[in-house]
Design goal:
Elements: H1 11-18, H2 25-44, H3 54-57, E1 59-62, E2 72-75, H4 80-85, E3 86-89, E4 92-95, E5 98-101, E6 104-107, E7 115-118, E8 121-124, H5 128-156
Antiparallel strand pairs: 1-2, 3-8, 4-7, 5-6
Helix pairs in contact: 2-5
Protein name: HK97 gp10 family phage protein
Length: about 160
């Protein structure tokens, strides 16, 4: 999960030097972190595999860490970890007289057959959180660079 973490080298030093000179520093920093969370969120969503949209609609930006200089993007859906990281599908019996996938229905060959046995296999993860972070990094870097330049201009007296 280290791929889904974004750290900026020199950020602590920047905050220490400039926070005392900028008006409404905490509000501006909170706004920056919210924007960063929204960028990451928007880059994660396209990588989430299609299901019933339950997982997609339950990925949120959590802002509780903003006072501590971090923002989280995540979900409370129980199976999200398995979809992201992969999992073993154990051998089991699926009781059904027909199978429906993607709107297409396939009836079992023998009407006396009450189901099928699924074999054990590994279901590869989609790594949607990591892919989203990888896609978001360039946008996050541009946003932070812009924020730092704007802050430096404000300190110089050229308020925007």
């Amino acid at each position: 999960m280290s791929d889904s973490c974004f750290e900026l080298e020199g950020w602590d030093e920047f905050v220490e030097r400039f926070s005392q000179f900028v008006d409404k520093w905490e509000a501006k920093k909170a706004q920056l972190l919210k924007k960063m969370g929204n960028i990451y969120h928007s880059e994660v969503i396209p990588h989430v595999p299609v299901d019933t949209s339950h997982l997609v609609s339950n990925i949120f930006v959590f802002g509780e860490g903003i006072p501590h200089d971090f923002v989280e993007v995540g979900t409370n859906v129980e199976y999200a970890l398995y979809v992201n990281d992969g999992h073993v599908q154990h051998k089991r019996r699926l009781k059904a007289d027909r199978l429906t996938v993607g709107g297409k229905t396939k009836y079992l060959k023998n009407r006396n057959q009450t189901g099928i046995t699924l074999s054990e296999r590994y279901v590869a993860g989609s790594f949607f959180m990591e892919k989203g972070m990888q896609d978001a990094k360039p946008r996050l870097e541009r946003l932070i660079e812009s924020f730092m330049e704007q802050t430096a201009r404000e300190i110089e007296g050229g308020r925007l």
